[in-house]
Write a structure and sequence with these properties.
The complex is a heterotetramer, with two copies of chain A (322 residues) and two copies of chain B (355 residues). Chain A is an alpha/beta fold and 322 residues long. Chain A has a single domain, classed as 3-Layer(aba) Sandwich (Rossmann fold). The longest helix of chain A has 24 residues. Chain B is of the alpha/beta class and 355 residues long. In chain B, the strands form three sheets. Chain B has a seven-stranded mixed sheet with strand order 3-2-4-5-7-6-12, with helices on both faces. A five-stranded mixed sheet of chain B has the order 9-11-10-13-14, with helices on both faces. Chain B starts with 7 loop residues before the first strand and ends in a 9-residue tail after the last helix. The chains are: A alpha/beta (322), B alpha/beta (355). Chains B and C meet through helix 4, helix 6, helix 10 and strand 14 of B and helix 4, helix 6, helix 10 and strand 14 of C. Bound molecules: thiamine diphosphate (2 copies) and magnesium ion (2 copies). One thiamine diphosphate sits at the interface of chains A and C.
Chain lengths: 322, 355, 355, 322
């Protein structure tokens, strides 16, 4: 928060913390369970990056639409996606949000307007733009948000999407979660020019950067852009600098792999929004929220464990829609 | 499906435009996008009148961005719209493979049935006037490989209208394959909306000597070949599968079990193509004792040459099809050369029904 | 081609890295590009050591821009370099189709022989650990459709090295298909450079009861099935085509003419796949009197499900292959269930030579 | 030319005029012949746009490399490509630059370092970048140039190419021939932001615009950028505003088709560089150059007419390189 700006009202902090702590704890549980081999699919944890999803989604309406990537647990949950269905999905159970057919990389929650996530980088960007086209035609002022990584911004489809969205003044917010890495490759090996916002503005899409991961700044920026988009102002981009705490895929830390330096992580860990928000709340309230998270996550794990696997017939269902 | 020669005589291209206009009038979710759909050429006439009737919100050109535009169409479809994405050449679908195969084909399954992608992708196989290697490709074989996509290739105006309406109403991505040379062909086309059901092949002509399956424009070329073959008393049963996915293999199998000869004439490269699939399915089902002679013909296995001096050898034509049939039906007999005058005449042949 | 069990025992992944290192040392035109080829994971080890030996000019990662990067590789190849473009999943080739098919495959022809594209495109078919619908696709069938591309899919470390060297030296675009599960398999691999010639299939085991063609990893699975089948006195001739374009159909045909049974086990979807092509070619050539029973198996015709509960039904395995063989060889006999213990043991089987 | 700048030396004007007139005349002949149906393949004429190819290529060395599009006659000839081989190619003859297999859209002239042109928009851009990569590795200071239209700049591959070229500081000049149309669609239906140079600069690629089609300005800008690139400075872009006089494909005018206005064309026709250069030369010299063009073009047409067609065997040659 910029110095001198007002302290956020406690209700807001409470709401944000509820979401943030829940997501953090859910992913920590996933990481804890992972070595037991019950989750038989690659997981890309958002740990350290959750404030982006939470900040953005808090500024949206229930019927606004979001889409994310294979690193999509946080977006899915922040938008209201059902943790039971997500956990069961990771366990490959029929009660999963995609009936076990999708796994961690293909979460979906259309009942909360969470578009399906995808394992092929950048593919969901134009899809979300297309959804925004439908929202514009619908004319009810709903907006769409597409989350993606810095690496995704290198795919041609991203620029094609920017141009089309701007041309048609579509209500879509592009949110780049810039964690500086695509797998193990740093930006310096991938971007010739490091100012993404400037690049994007060249396409006629206004862009804002939040450099410090401040969840309130992210929320405020989103609220402002969403309001503009609901007026028909066209797409915008939000670049949120962030940091991935765990390895690219899997439950572990990987600072021992020498492709990045633990010192890099230090300011991000120091600026972690989870304890920050906790500290802004009365201790008891924070504790209650945390307890609630624990119950919900434990329930979800139990739900996943106890759910049945899909059976053979399920293999051939849903290849074609009726 | 209409079963008689009803309706007016209409050109293929006009049948396409009519199908879309009728569906758009009826269902506000239907819209048309794609490079140049709204210009005065109107995709060789096949989107003629749509802009005027339905306005720029529902009929719009796009930037040259086939990859993202395919994603946009998919996203709109997931939101409940029914996009028709048009490509003036099928070759350009090679820019769309990622979205088509990684998203459109898989979304319904991968997301556990919670979303569907009612998308029509229209594309035209180019031919004539030295289109060359990059403006003449036919890629339906690739799409047949991929679960989740439907693939249709109507060969006449009647089926063009009925299949396009069926495709628009289908809740899955449908690859709608057209052929440039079919655009001016005419057939009886009912005025009212109707669907031509996918997965039901049509026997265009009955015959006992050989089963010839033609694909897309090769139905027309095979019918012409069959005209020539009558001269030497060979009677070919010409089958038009109409839709390739789903494929009505039973009709083909039953015919081949009777004629003992199966020739697939594709409008595409042969290896791993529609012909390979049809031949393999028929022989898997017929079993080793059926004694069916099989053969596939299609594009020469080369990139398409531009010069007409080579193009003439690249495509199957009524003469080469008829010759292949003759050799299959009368193996070992002297090669036969259809009368060039008759071959020319064969080009007058049109299949106008009954449907 | 080495014909004996010579060389050291080497893993597939190390054989790949060795092939490239030796060719790079010998020919300064060879270089390696692709996402993550230079990181500490080194494409699951298959580019291990190359950066250290040859430097960042010759071994470099790229931005996530598969389409343009393919064009870049093609352009460098046209300029006389020999790029090896690496993709950690074959699924990502769907982003490259335009450049691969519209340019790489056609350039030599379309430009009248004045340029060539000596490009190797390495890609890995993903499997295991719930890769799901977008990280497990095998697209070699699509590439077999397109003239101008070569397609190879070595199934063991020996062929991996020999084919990769041959691919690097080839003056055409070569789609080099690897399978994740093969990476740790071992075989005798000569230390010196050698090539495994394209277009020569290998008969891995001799047998009189059935011809089984395995593709990529399905060679290994078929060999395991053959182990099981010995229990019921069925002897399968397992053939590894090694290269799919060019395809050594003669070896397959001759075997099938003898055994009268042909099963193609593909590591991909079945329709319009390699199996369709092999079956169609064999039966076109064998003629109607040959009485050959044919069958294809491969992926279930669905997107790949992530949950292992369904994944187990998605892929052919030694048990399902053996069962299919049993039903083909002894039609009408009671279905047979290989002993699960023996099935497990079959997973120890490795083809290490002779080559 | 900017007022007050020096008059270009006559040798330069002569050289430019020789190339420019030759190309104009060659294409006019193609247009004249076209209705006779001897050229059985689509032709996309450069008429009105030739000064870009001529101005750029004049500033290059013989062993620099150029690549263009299906609208590639001008580039091919300006770089020194053989008109006989081009004309024979359009006639589909075996003596064509691609043995008749390519046609007008697939010209190639590797002996003059003209990369093959392509009918799929934007495909040749990354290919030229790849060639530039090889030139950089070669280290002899050679540069590559890729010509493309405004429409091509909408394809993702273009942005991917810019980023990669800039990242590796490759010696490649991107030349956008901005004629305002992709087939019949104006920029306003395709670009959200109309400043291409700014968009490109966002990728770290310096960009220059020449608005008036001045051949000397184009040449001077190219010379400057080529010199920088030979020093290892990395890629640049040149946006040349221009106008297509004929229909998109084919030999006719199409102002009667109502998608554009003849008035739009007027300033471009008034500013035509062909008569402008002619007027800068002594009448006799200009006349001699023109006469020479006519002879060379007539020779090429005769060569094409008299050359044989490829025969059946040729169909199956060159599918694979040996
Ligand atoms: C088209 C494509 N190319 C490559 C990959 C392999 N891959 C998976 S994640 C990833 C890195 C993406 O980085 P970024 O977009 O920054 O997202 P992050 O993982 O950092 O959240 C890559 C290269 C892929 N999945 N899809
Ligand atoms: C990838 C692709 N999409 C569409 C087309 C059809 N098409 C051919 S030329 C053209 C317009 C290209 O415009 P521009 O790049 O400005 O070049 P110009 O023709 O104006 O020189 C289009 C859309 C194509 N050939 N390739
Ligand atoms: Mg990242
Ligand atoms: Mg243009």
């Amino acid at each position: 928060m910029a110095p001198g700006s007002e302290l956020p009202p406690q209700a807001l902090v409470e709401r944000l913390y509820r979401s943030l702590h829940f997501i953090r704890h859910a992913e920590e549980e996933v990481a804890r369970i992972y070595p037991s081999d019950q989750i038989k699919s690659p997981v890309h944890l958002s740990i350290g990056q959750e404030a982006i999803s939470v900040g953005v989604c808090d500024a949206l309406n229930t019927d606004d639409v979001v889409g994310g990537t294979y690193r999509g647990h946080a977006v899915y949950l922040a938008k209201g996606g059902d943790l039971n269905a997500m956990m069961a999905e990771m366990y490959g159970k029929i009660t999963g949000c995609a009936r076990g057919k999708g796994g961690s990389m293909h979460l979906v929650g259309m009942d909360h307007f969470v578009l399906g996530t995808s394992a092929v980088v950048a593919t969901t960007i134009p899809v979300a733009v297309g959804y925004a086209l439908a929202l514009k035609r619908e004319g009810k002022g709903r907006v769409a948000v597409t989350f993606f990584g810095d690496g995704a911004s290198e795919e041609g489809a991203f620029y094609e999407s920017l141009n089309f969205a701007a041309l048609h003044k579509l209500p879509i917010l592009f949110v780049c979660e810039n964690n500086g890495f695509a797998i193990h490759e740093p930006l310096s090996k991938r971007w010739a020019a490091h100012d993404l916002c400037r690049r994007v503005e060249g396409f006629g899409v206004p862009a804002t950067r939040v450099t410090d991961g401040d969840i309130f700044a992210i929320r405020t920026a989103t609220a402002a852009t969403a309001a503009r988009m609901r007026q028909g102002n066209g797409p915008e981009l939000l670049e949120c600098m962030t940091y991935r705490w765990k390895e690219h895929v899997g439950p572990n830390e990987d600072f021992n792999q020498n492709y990045r330096d633990a010192a890099e992580a230090a300011p991000w860990i120091a600026g972690d929004q989870v304890p920050r928000l906790a500290a802004m709340l009365p201790t008891q309230l924070a504790a209650a929220i945390e307890a609630d998270s624990r119950v919900r996550v434990a329930d979800a794990v139990r739900f996943a464990e106890e759910s049945p696997f899909p059976t053979f017939e399920e293999l051939h269902t849903h290849v074609y829609a009726l | 499906m209409s079963t008689h020669s009803e309706g007016r005589i209409l050109r293929y291209v006009d049948a396409l435009a009519e199908a879309v206009a009728q569906e758009m009038a009826q269902d506000p979710a239907v819209f048309v996008m794609g490079l140049d759909v709204d210009d005065h050429r109107a995709i060789q006439g096949s989107t003629r009148g749509l802009l005027e009737k339905f306005g720029a919100d529902r009929v719009f050109t796009t930037p040259l961005s086939e990859d993202a535009m395919t994603g946009v169409a998919i996203g709109a479809a997931m939101a409940g719209m029914r996009p028709i994405h048009v490509h003036i050449r099928m070759d350009f679908l090679l820019l769309c493979m990622n979205q088509l195969i990684n998203i459109a084909a898989k979304a319904h399954y991968m997301y556990g049935g919670t979303v569907s992608v009612p998308l029509v992708v229209r594309s035209i196989i180019g031919r004539g006037w030295g289109q060359g290697a990059q403006h003449s490709q036919a890629l339906h074989g690739m799409f047949m490989h991929v679960p989740g996509l439907k693939v249709v290739a109507p060969s006449n105006a009647h089926d063009a209208k009925g299949c396009l309406i069926a495709a628009i109403r289908d809740n899955n991505p449908v690859m709608f394959v057209e052929h440039r040379l079919l655009y001016t062909t005419e057939a009886y086309v009912p005025e009212a909306q109707y669907t031509v059901e996918f997965g039901r092949a049509r026997i265009c002509t009955k015959g006992d000597d050989i089963t010839v399956v033609g694909i897309s424009n090769m139905v027309v070329e095979s019918l012409r070949a069959q005209e020539l073959l009558k001269d030497i008393d060979i009677h070919a049963e010409i089958i038009d599968p109409i839709s390739l996915v789903p494929l009505d293999i039973d009709t083909i199998l039953n015919s081949a079990l009777r004629t003992k000869k199966l020739l697939v004439v594709d409008n595409a490269w042969v290896p791993c193509g529609a012909g390979a699939e049809i031949v393999a399915q028929v022989l898997e089902r017929a079993g080793p004792g059926a004694g069916i002679t099989v053969k596939r013909i299609g594009f020469a296995h080369t990139p398409t040459p531009t010069t007409s001096a080579l193009e003439q050898f690249f495509y199957p034509n009524p003469g080469t099809i008829a010759q292949a049939v003759q050799q299959m039906v009368r193996p070992g007999s002297a090669p036969w050369q259809p009368d060039p005058e008759r071959t020319k005449l064969a080009y007058q042949v049109q299949f106008r029904g009954p449907f």
